[in-house]
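Field guide to reading this record: the first block holds the primary sequence, the second block holds the structure written as discrete tokens, and the final block holds curator observations. Each block starts with its own label. This record concerns Transposase, catalogued under organism Ruegeria marina.

BLOCK 1 — SEQUENCE
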Amino acid sequence: MNEETKSERIVKDIRCRTRKHHSAEQKIRIVLEGLRGEESIAELCRREGIATSLYYSWSKEFLEAGKRRLAGDTARQATAPEVKELRSEAAALKEVVAELTLENRLLKKSMIGAGESDE
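BLOCK 2 — STRUCTURE
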């Protein structure tokens, strides 16, 4: 029994390591081909080497994303480069605010000082 479990674990590990990962562009291409209907979904999936259940889950995700987009729900997670850019922009804006605040204080002090010397 222990040997059986060990071999099952090895097979599972091999399947995980050799599993094909599809990019978003590949998934979209496959779903669009299926929607065109030029060949059956079964034939498309066989040619692409994916399970039909995987095709249908991609198709569902694709159509739901399109529905949300058309409904105006465009909220999404920011990518790492976007986060980095936003942090950089926030830091630059904080510097500008600090400089303007300092200039404002200096101007106020100079106005107060000029008013006192005129009296």
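BLOCK 3 — OBSERVATIONS
The chain has a mean pLDDT of 87.
DSSP finds five helices and no strands in the chain.
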